[in-house]
Design a protein that fits this description.
This protein is an alpha/beta fold. Helices cover about 40% and strands about 15% of the residues. It is built from 8 helices and 11 strands. Strand 7 and strand 8 form a beta hairpin. Helix 4 packs across helix 5. The longest helix is centred in the middle third of the chain and has 17 residues.
Length: about 240
């Protein structure tokens, strides 16, 4: 069971710490942290020593860092590019987040370099995994990832090895931190996944976001289910690196 925290960035440090504390109470102390190195181009990670220290502590404890976009917002004035289904998902559910649906290959490579440079300045290990904001990206972004040395791409329900063309199915349940309508849809999807996909897979994930009510009733309910799955059903906490390694 991979537990991943999205949107790890300076504006949400308090929420991330609170979620990590709840997870520790659940018995989960090794997680995947999806780090956005310059949230909305206004909060560079390398200017936040307390968050850097937290990430270093997490890495030392066996957690994994993943590059999660660079600014987590689309290029200004840039149209979405890529498959129509991805563009439609972007417009409906991630209009303010689908950063890697707006880039050409060269633009995506430049963005990735900026993000990695911030990781380096912060003294953090270079990630070899990438997860696009909203799990939305185009083919040009995939080309850029391979050219910049990334091996793994995390999509919504699968993690792909870009070098060897293999995939691991990772059905997930979680909390989006979105508006009431979208969050209700996510919770309905959670129920479907739990009743169907989890019975036919050996790898799954729980994902959390730090927005809105990061330690509220929905998150606590999800973590109570997680604790039950670990204690009763034998699921073992892991990271994407373990699953793909």
């Amino acid at each position: 069971m991979i537990v991943s925290l999205h949107d790890v960035a300076p504006p949400f440090e308090a929420a991330i710490r609170a979620q990590l504390a709840l997870l520790a109470e659940t018995g989960v102390r090794r997680v995947t942290l999806k780090v956005t190195p310059n949230w909305h181009d206004a909060y560079p990670l390398d200017a936040s020593p307390s968050l850097i220290a937290l990430l270093q502590e997490q890495v030392a404890a066996g957690s994994q860092l993943v590059l999660h976009g660079v600014t987590h917002q689309p290029g200004e004035g840039k149209p979405f590019r890529g498959p129509w289904l991805s563009r439609t998902r972007g417009r409906l559910f991630a209009a303010d987040a689908a950063e890697f649906l707006t880039f050409s290959t060269d633009e995506a490579r430049e963005a990735l370099r900026r993000g990695l440079a911030i990781f380096e300045r912060a003294g953090l290990p270079r990630p070899d995994m990438f997860c696009a904001p909203g799990w939305l990206h185009n083919t040009e972004a995939e080309i850029a990832l391979k050219r910049e040395g990334f091996r793994y791409l995390i999509d919504m329900f699968v993690v792909r090895d870009l070098w060897e063309r293999r995939s691991v199915w990772t059905p997930g349940m979680g909390y989006m931190g979105a508006g009431p309508g979208q969050e209700m849809g996510v919770q309905i999807l959670n129920g479907i996944v739990q009743r169907t996909a989890l019975r036919a897979t050996s790898v799954a994930k729980v994902y959390l976001h730090p927005q809105r009510d990061p330690t509220g009733a929905i998150v606590r309910h999800r973590l109570a289910q997680l604790a039950e799955m670990i204690g009763r059903d034998g699921w073992r906490p892991a990271t994407f690196a373990e699953v793909c390694g």
